[in-house]
User: Fold these one by one.
Assistant:
Number 1:
Amino acid sequence: MRDPYSVLGVSRSADEREIKSAFRKLAMKYHPDQNQNDPKAQEKFAQVNQAYEIIGDKEKRGKFDRGEIDEEGKDKFAGFGGGGGNPFGGGHPFGSAGAGGGFTGGAAEDILNEIFGNMGGGRSSGGGGNPFGAGMGGGARQQARPSKGQDAEAKLSVTLEDLVSGEKRRVHLPTGKSLDMKVPNGVKSGQTIRMKGQGFESRTGPSGDALVTVEILPHKLFKVEEQNVRLELPLALYEAVLGARIRIPTLEGKVEVKIPAGMSSGKSLRLKGRGLPDRNGNRGDLYVTSKIILPEGSDPGLRALMEDWQDTNAYRPRSADFD
């Protein structure tokens, strides 16, 4: 067994994060599932795991650095006494022996479970066998347990119109596959949708999942308020005073609305069921808020009209709070 620091390719001053990162990369590279026809890779995988069991464990690393145990985790001072013939001095670099003769995984197993979905580096099914395929005492190779494929992550950008149309959207996955996905009702921007079995394939088990993160694009006209949407409607002064019929955009095309006479700026009309769907498919509302726009520049006729209006029909648009 080589020096565990050399096996993992880290310096003796490396911190826990660096050691863990190096182990994850090497474990993924040499894992038996990825190298089923390469005995050397499988042997390298076992060495990587053994090295991490030494320096990935704070207590064992301290003992190794102080020279109390060797590269295989054997006590340098205890020899083989009390080991019952076990060349590891009663211990095992992959964990401690269980009551049934199997091995309870240590730090390496925890990380391998994260990477390979509770597969690689786990407990062996036979007593005393190597959990990574080869018997510690030269026994026959054991069959690796089925492992799930890696998840594939992707992003899907959608518009507000997409959320109400019900049409499927094309998602391009890093696996090379493209899928037509229905955007769920009530989805929020940043939410991740899991598509089972659509991730990377595995040689020994089920495929991973596709994890699609939805991004709802901002709209140039509509503002989202939970399931409701709001549209600001510019009105000419005469439209607000006299009333009008105006075509306005909605998330499903244009419709005509009636603006009542005397529509003040900031007042809203409600179009029921024209908003976004919630998780149950119930639609929110569209609120159309008026904004009175005066003509650009100085209009002598409008100015004269307003001066006469001020003299004969002055009114208070503000409450006493503004006095």
Number 2:
Amino acid sequence: MLTHKSILITGGTGSLGKELTKTILKKWPDIKRLVIYSRDEQKQFQMAQEFPESQYPAIRYFIGDVRDLERLKRAFNGIDYVIHAAAMKHVHIAEYNPDECVKTNIGGAENVIKASLSSNVTKVVALSTDKACAPINLYGATKLTSDKLFIAANNIKGNQDIKFSVVRYGNVMGSNGSVIPFFMNKREEGVLPITDPTMTRFNISLKGGVDMVLHALDHAWGGELFVPKIPSYKILDVAQAIAPSCEHRVIGIRPGEKIHEEMITASDSFTTYDLGKYYVILPQVTNWNLEDYKKVFDAKLVPQGFSYTSGDNSEWETIESMRNQIKEHVYLDFQPK
């Protein structure tokens, strides 16, 4: 799929960007160019120690902000595929700095679309979040807007050979700012802060997130919003898995947080299809034949009123499975204490 192709990852120094880089360089050693586009020079410097250009001649590090349209256009020159992972993602920081969140998550999305349409990019996959589904916080609202922009971009491409799609998933295990590394640090103090004892979240590994992005890159027809079938966990089970000997102190939810996350609402059910490993929410109007799509992917419409939430999930992580997952995907030397 990526042999002799050029691909650019915005926010490429983030957790998922680094995992994508590792996977792409391993699976497609003949990739033409892999551009890491981000605004943090220190993270780029650190990433270049792990993936040096001397060892990986296809890789390039490009300092830039998705808020800067002209810089994006320059970076997209000669690029075939774009994965848009750059975002302001911390809920409470977005609540306190709303204008900055809007500029990056909405303005940045518009710029990625404009830069893609003004270059020879043929596929764009944008990363979403479960918080974009029925959002109650600004971060979720900006990501929902971003999703809509990317999906609608398929309507303005004209005769250009380009496809825009979106992937939406839950909390990525071990990603920057997520609950597992937070609890790992806090357990040294003997107390784990618990926002709400009934809280649940979807759970996906970095590898699962990467697989989903690459699936969309390979299979999207344009306009799809892909949702993975993944397990949920209870926040208390994560705390128990990591630090069974610690005190669990309830501190209350932070501004903009939900008790349970959603990825598909009942209102989405009218255009949501089951693809087997994934669900896909399709736009109400497509520029391709729906019946052909259903035949190719054996897509089955979900029942009306169907919803997909972390609190009502049919698949759950246990304390033991969380420990195994942490050891496999996050900390190889992990031991509960």
